[in-house]
């Protein structure tokens, strides 16, 4: 195993997680050449244009995805990140995820930035200022925004839309001393640039991924998050 120095009491850690964190929980991915649903490429349905052209089709796609994660539970990788944040606090251990499965929250994380939104929420298509609505399985087609009566759409960031909380994320990256990239492909921006941003401020960069994406990482662990993270967190919390 690659030896990774244990962060000190003044270190601030930013941990970015992607699909690889949830792989051991059985959460399917819809990216890649096999990512088809009812003859449609999943990436073609994850756009504002698709919603405008056929909202019912997009709703059914997200209903299906929501049902697939309904019974999924966090794995030891999620649990390890929660233990670390609960021990160190959310300012010293900042969790940001590209995943929309909500598993870090279910695992008990005190604070998680879901930069791509969540399958478990709906939002008003008219305004981000309107309240979010929790959803667990099929979306109620007749339910409208309680504030303005607008249609409710999945609270998921689609291609062409700005990820959530970017100002907060960049602020935390600028102050971090350790950056951990867990199970992400390294191809979707702006998250793909986080490691370079952290490296530019002198942070130690770590990648945990069975198929390393490559980048400015000092340490690379080519293994699953469900095995690597519990071991690393146990070591970091043993001081």
Describe, in short, the structure shown.
With 239 residues, the protein is α/β, with parallel strands linked by helices. It contains nine helices and eleven strands.
What is the topological layout?
Blueprint: E1 13-17, H1 19-22, E2 36-37, E3 40-41, H2 42-45, H3 48-53, H4 55-70, H5 76-88, E4 93-97, H6 103-107, E5 112-114, E6 117-124, E7 133-134, E8 152-156, H7 166-175, E9 178-182, H8 194-200, E10 204-208, E11 219-221, H9 225-236
Parallel strand pairs: 1-4, 1-9, 4-5, 9-10, 10-11
Antiparallel strand pairs: 2-3, 6-7, 6-8
Would you mind describing this structure in some detail?
By secondary structure, the protein is an alpha/beta fold. It folds into two domains: 13-27 and 73-116 and 162-236, Rossmann fold (3-Layer(aba) Sandwich); 29-71 and 121-156, 2-Layer Sandwich (SIR2/SIRT2 'Small Domain'). 32% of the residues lie in helices and 19% in strands. The chain has nine helices and eleven strands. A six-stranded parallel beta sheet has the order 5-4-1-9-10-11, with helices on both faces. Strand 2 and strand 3 (40-41) form a beta hairpin. Helix 5 (76-88) packs parallel to helix 9. The chain is elongated.
